[in-house]
Amino acid sequence: MEINNILTGDSLTILKTLKDESIDLILTSPPYFQQRDYGNGHLGIGGENSEEKYLENVLAVFFECVRVAKPTGCIVFNLGDKYINGGLSLLPYKFAIKALESSQLFLINQITWAKLNPTPRQDKRKLIQATEPFFIFAKSKDYYFDLSNYLKHLDDLNKANKGKPSEKLGKQYFDLIEKSDLNEAQKENARKSLQEAILAVHKGEIDSFRMKIKGLHKEAYGGMEGGRNNQIRNHGFTIIKILGNKLKKDIIESPVEITKDNAHPAVYPLYIVQELIKLLSKENDIILDPFCGSGTTCLAAKNLNRHYLGIEIKPEYVELANQRLKQVDFMQELFL
Ligand SMILES: C[S@@+](CC[C@H](N)C(=O)[O-])C[C@H]1O[C@@H](n2cnc3c(N)ncnc32)[C@H](O)[C@@H]1O
């Protein structure tokens, strides 16, 4: 297998020629069901007459991807839904359920792509469809996962935007602890936890916090039984940590992208693909996209010093992908 290459042909046929457990990460977006005309005629996936046949074809490729993935590898599939007879078909979820039913895989996340510029609808009795799932399947519990590399620019931005916390931060609570009816042991505990929370803000581990003390603050959930109220009742206080943007959530925002002259009708966002590659692989790993279209996955892999392998049935798209990859080389040469 020659890496850093885009192979022209049918993905299932080509995947069958790849060795077991030879790929670090597979990331792809198969053609959506009866959604677009890629001009592939009967050769392409997506033009089937029934959902069942479509799912069968996509799953056949998916299971080949599972076979070629290393035990530490993940298989990421992005699929879009479709209205059939006025109702959503839930095809992406039917795919995911079938994929799990017939394998030992773990679905570690379903990341929702929230589109910042979704296509407006003619039908005024439905909301605009602005999300699509990226399913992340892991081959084993040993999957590679580098959370610190995911959305790192947001961490850096948070740090840069955040001034030094005030020296007075949280100090008012020490007075409140003293004034409270807590017993001496509870007060000691409360002071210790407060000190730890202040330190966590200074270290940047949390954005801020609030403290609730028995008798001074209303119980958290209006008298309902629950974790926080129990903490207040049992220990005399609770500390609510505010994490701000530090939480890495299973949702990612990005506009829908288009290639120059709209040369490919269904390009997925380079930004999301790059973030997933940073999360799920390391430098020099091999990334495979069996429906590589305009080559977004290959481009993202190249930008991040990973190796790539693409498969695409339509020769014009292979050419387009190669052109996009060459532009990266050209830009790199300019800056050498
Ligand atoms: C949704 S597009 C992928 C777009 C790609 N993610 C990008 O950013 O450009 C799906 C691609 O799969 C290709 N395709 C359809 N059937 C195929 C098959 N059997 N083997 C290989 N590629 C196929 C289509 O030509 C199309 O370019």
TrEMBL record:
Keywords: DNA-binding, Methyltransferase, Restriction system, S-adenosyl-L-methionine, Transferase
Entry protein name: Methyltransferase
Domain DNA methylase N-4/N-6: 23-322
Biological source species: Thioflexithrix psekupsensis
Gene Ontology biological-process annotations: DNA restriction-modification system; methylation
Catalytic activity: a 2'-deoxycytidine in DNA + S-adenosyl-L-methionine = an N(4)-methyl-2'-deoxycytidine in DNA + S-adenosyl-L-homocysteine + H(+)
PROSITE patterns cross-referenced by the UniProt entry: N4_MTASE
Origin superkingdom: Bacteria
Family, per entry: Belongs to the N(4)/N(6)-methyltransferase family. N(4) subfamily.
InterPro entries, alphabetized: DNA_methylase_N4/N6, MeTrfase_CN4_CS, RM_Methyltransferase, SAM-dependent_MTases_sf
GO MF annotations, alphabetized: DNA binding; N-methyltransferase activity; site-specific DNA-methyltransferase (adenine-specific) activity; site-specific DNA-methyltransferase (cytosine-N4-specific) activity
Record EC number: 2.1.1.-
Record-linked SUPFAM superfamilies: S-adenosyl-L-methionine-dependent methyltransferases
GO CC annotation terms, alphabetical: cytoplasm
A Pfam family assignment: N6_N4_Mtase
